Amino acid sequence: MATSTLTIRIDDQLKREASEVAAYYGLDLSSVTRAFYTQMARTHSIPLTFAPEEPNDESLAAIAEGNAFLASGEEGRFSNARDLIEAAMS
Q: What's the CA gap between 87 and 81, in Å, rounded?
């Protein structure tokens, strides 16, 4: 099997962070890149997850606040969805 060399340009910080992730799994970036290309050729698709990331701390706090409000049984500022939407649009 003939081999080829691939050269890519990548931000230094991104490379460092990716190297840390690869090292956590006992791999180097070359091995990860070969695995990526192998999977892409095998499946005829790009093996990336486009799912949204987990919520950050601010989002988790907002979710907790909303859940606490709902659990309290208190009435909100709006009595129906139309009033809420009108307030949001103005």
A: 10
